[in-house]
Amino acid sequence: MQEKRNIILVALVLSVVLMFAKFSAYLITSSNFILTDAAESIVNVLASAFAFYSITLASQPKDINHPYGHGKVEFFSVFIEGTLITIAGIGIVFKAAYNLFYPHEVQNLITGAIIIGVTGGINGLMGYYMIRQGKILKSITIEADGRHLITDMVTSSGLVVGVIFIHLLGYLWLDSVLSIGVGLYIIFTGYKLVRKSVGGLMDEADFNVVQDIIKVLNDSRKEEWIDIHNLRAQKYGHELHIDCHMTLPNYFDLNRVHDEVALVDKLINEGASVKTELFIHTDPCLPDCCHYCSMPNCPIRFEAKSKDIEWTMDNITRNKKHFED
């Protein structure tokens, strides 16, 4: 967790430095187009500051008020970041639209382009690093902040090209038109972050995570595991929580049942590459399970096995045993 905080802290300090550099470029040029990048840098600072707070809070241990931990605050952090980006984009569009009808003189565009180009390059390098580390550390906050910085790099690159065109062609209206285009792109980026955060806060299913779990279970499947159903996966920050039902032979004693459940827990935690807390409800087998049960020398078998059932997204997430339609 300390590594996460260090990454966000570096991003925060860097954002403050680059914000001052971008506003210096705006003061030098008086360009709305450059102001769009400078305004977004304020969002970078606010987002990194809140991300640092959320990761610090998410690292707190579980308590009586938060039995699943504090990890969901990371989704809230992403929501705040996406909202701020969207507001910045809307403000940029309105100001650029105003100056489209009431243009003002711009100057020193090449100097401004150089400053913005350098800041964009630095943000791009930091963004790629944060996305990579966010995936490794399973942190949606770090990954979202990294994607925000990548967005900043893209807009800065487009800005540099646009500023050069404005300088060469001398069309003042082009400054406002390009600003509107960048503002709309920023709004779209903010929307995607808000959508992702709301999905996490509403416990929207992460199909990639569920598919990884299903693969681990299929690859390690034992004859004793007659079926697994009603599987639900929820992410709480860097942790994953799984509920499921597992059907075992009804003549297993409690110790044997515990051993099988513990093995599933171990396999998922080792194979799914994410810290996982499992709540497994065990069901006793029924005579209707016999036709797909692989248990050898079963003392209570009613009929021979006649069917193999592969565990899939469809049958492992339904709240019913595999013989039920």
From TrEMBL:
It is found in: Membrane. InterPro entries: Cation_efflux, Cation_efflux_CTD, Cation_efflux_CTD_sf, Cation_efflux_TM, Cation_efflux_TMD_sf, CDF_Transporter. Residues 8-202 form the Cation efflux protein transmembrane domain. GO terms for cellular component: plasma membrane. One of its GO terms (molecular function) is zinc efflux antiporter activity. The chain crosses the membrane at residues 7-29, 41-58, 78-98, 110-129, 149-170, 176-194. It is a multi-pass membrane protein. Keywords: Membrane, Transmembrane, Transmembrane helix, Transport. Gene3D superfamilies: Cation efflux protein transmembrane domain, Cation efflux protein, cytoplasmic domain. One of its GO terms (biological process) is intracellular zinc ion homeostasis. Residues 210-285 form the Cation efflux protein cytoplasmic domain. It holds the Pfam family Cation_efflux. PANTHER family: MITOCHONDRIAL METAL TRANSPORTER 1-RELATED. Belongs to the cation diffusion facilitator (CDF) transporter (TC 2.A.4) family. This is Cation diffusion facilitator family transporter. It comes from Mucilaginibacter straminoryzae.
